[in-house]
Amino acid sequence: MDPAVALVLCLSCLFLLSLWRQSSGRGRLPSGPTPLPIIGNILQLDVKDMSKSLTNFSKVYGPVFTVYFGLKPIVVLHGYEAVKEALIDHGEKFSGRGSFPVAEKVNKGLGILFSNGKRWKEIRRFSLMTLRNFGMGKRSIEDRVQEEALCLVEELRKTNASPCDPTFILGCAPCNVICSVIFHNRFDYKDQRFLNLMEKFNENLRILSSPWIQVCNNFPALIDYLPGSHNKIVKNFAYVKSYVLERIKEHQESLDMDNPRDFIDCFLIKMEQEKHNLQSEFTIESLIATVTDMFGAGTETTSTTLRFGLLLLLKYPEVTAKVQEEIERVIGRNRSPCMQDRSHMPYTDAVVHEIQRYIDLLPTNLPHAVTCDVKFRNYLIPKGTTILISLTSVLHDNKEFPNPEMFDPRHFLDEGGNFKKSNYFMPFSAGKRICVGEALARMELFLFLTSVLQNFNLKSLVDPKDLDTTPVVNGFASVPPFYQLCFIPV
């Protein structure tokens, strides 16, 4: 027999065996599209727009169904009711981190984003407590964001109303805020090391959202044996980690156990306190991974949202005009915006929420996993099964948000023009794995956008009607298309 034919037959048998074990063993998974041997449902999924494929499947198989990434079953939750039931009502059982092979190659199960079990709980608890101690959600962190907003405005003034690509400038501001918390300092916007780090983060987000990475996550063996852009991700993260390690060594040399300056100091102090605990999760490797997670997640998601937000404000000048009128009325020109202003600015608050809802930044969230065998609806999902959450199906629910494909701040306003909260607003996910930096990100989006619109009119280089807001890639994240604009001082 031809070796290739024999290999295909063996793999097919293994695949059929795995299907039989799922159906007859401890698992009773939801139904879904019939998978092909070895490759699963990959040919039925649009790797350029995974979220759209999942929506199409949900129309056939309902809100809970199974797809196969290669030989691996993935349970998909589609729609608010299924997502809420899993992440909130059964939060602990669905709090595991699912398989994300490309990230696992980089993080090796450390840090906040891709860790699990006791390690994840301890690092997350410590990180939340430390961020709160340094003022996340309190006055001190707001001061840092306000100061950075002033720097952002000054940097935009230097463009002299000339056409510019806002990518790096909008990335620098949130990056500097997280740097002040982690490293106790900020960068100058022209610092070459800073620009290098920003480029690594930008490039990684683009690559992670590419069809090739979707394929790599389906077939992890490709990561180790084939060339491709996944190797660039590893190299970029190695660059960031080497920078983080440099800063950690500097902190070790100047550490004052009684006066921690930032997150790294607090982690080093915790390491010292647990140095006799052989099972401690607080190690140098864990610190590097945790800081890298916070550094990247605290920079790229907010900067991409800001970039998408300005594109939408260019596209809809009537919305921008209403925000600027509200800024003029509530804040004026003689002081900086603050978070207390938000409660008096329902339209601006609605616009910020609508930007996040409309762009659907992480369409399928980061993968979850069940931490034990779970009875969910009429199914039995075995421990460790990866769960894919369709945040698109929640943020673009057409009953909660009429005409969800339209950008419309009225989605978050009642008939009287007051801000209207929605349980369907889940851009930061929900439940036990909700984003650690949610409060900081919300603060940055409001203060940065209001500061920009307080000081500048936005001018498009083309007719606003001709601006395309369709993401250039829509895989792991929705990445906005390239555009330029002019910041005209008010």
TrEMBL record:
EC number, as in UniProt: 1.14.14.1
GO terms assigned for molecular function: heme binding; iron ion binding; oxidoreductase activity, acting on paired donors, with incorporation or reduction of molecular oxygen, reduced flavin or flavoprotein as one donor, and incorporation of one atom of oxygen; retinoic acid 4-hydroxylase activity
Keywords noted in UniProt: Endoplasmic reticulum, Heme, Iron, Membrane, Metal-binding, Microsome, Monooxygenase, Oxidoreductase, Signal
Leader sequence residues: 1-25
Keyword check for Heme: yes
InterPro entries noted in UniProt: Cyt_P450 (IPR001128), Cyt_P450_CS (IPR017972), Cyt_P450_E_grp-I (IPR002401), Cyt_P450_sf (IPR036396), Cytochrome_P450_fam2 (IPR050182)
Family matches, as Pfam families: p450
One of the GO biological process terms: xenobiotic metabolic process
Full protein name: unspecific monooxygenase
Organism listed in the record: Macaca fascicularis
